[in-house]
Specification:
Length: 142
């Protein structure tokens, strides 16, 4: 296991546990953070963003199917799952709890520097995510 995988595993566990203190330790001051919702660069903005998912999905789980490693970069592929029982604050507004379960495939690329997350690029199907929450119609039914 390379250092990027080790820090990636700490990242996922901290989000699952709602452990903002660990995130503060492992998020680099100059983090490059990207999601389908947009790009963030300030460490506290990143922490607030990911902790918002812990608030909205307190039973959330990251199931990692595989890690692909190369030097100081790792790619984690898996499924994010949980039940939407809390408010989800997004850049587009607040989503009240739907009570619905989700299982969203994702790919996250971690770059590590000094045992911290230097970059974290997240890719997932946001339409599928919103559809599972009941906020968008199933494809082909719109």
């Amino acid at each position: 296991m390379n250092q990027a995988t080790a820090v990636g595993e700490r990242w996922f566990k901290a989000i699952e546990k709602g452990d903002a203190d660990t995130l503060r330790q492992i998020v680099a001051d100059d983090i490059d953070f990207l999601t389908p919702a947009g790009q963030l660069g300030a460490p506290q903005d990143v922490i607030d963003f990911v902790m918002g998912y812990n608030t909205a999905f307190p039973d959330s789980k990251f199931t990692i199917d595989r890690w692909i490693e190369q030097e100081d970069v790792s790619v984690g592929e898996g499924t994010y799952s949980g039940t939407h029982t809390g408010v989800l604050s997004t850049p587009m507004g607040v989503i009240p709890p739907t009570g619905k379960g989700i299982a969203v495939p994702f790919v996250t690329i971690f770059g590590e520097r000094g045992s911290q997350v230097a970059f974290c690029h997240n890719y997932y199907d946001n339409v599928g995510f919103m559809t599972q929450l009941g906020l968008m119609p199933e494809p082909g039914q719109g």
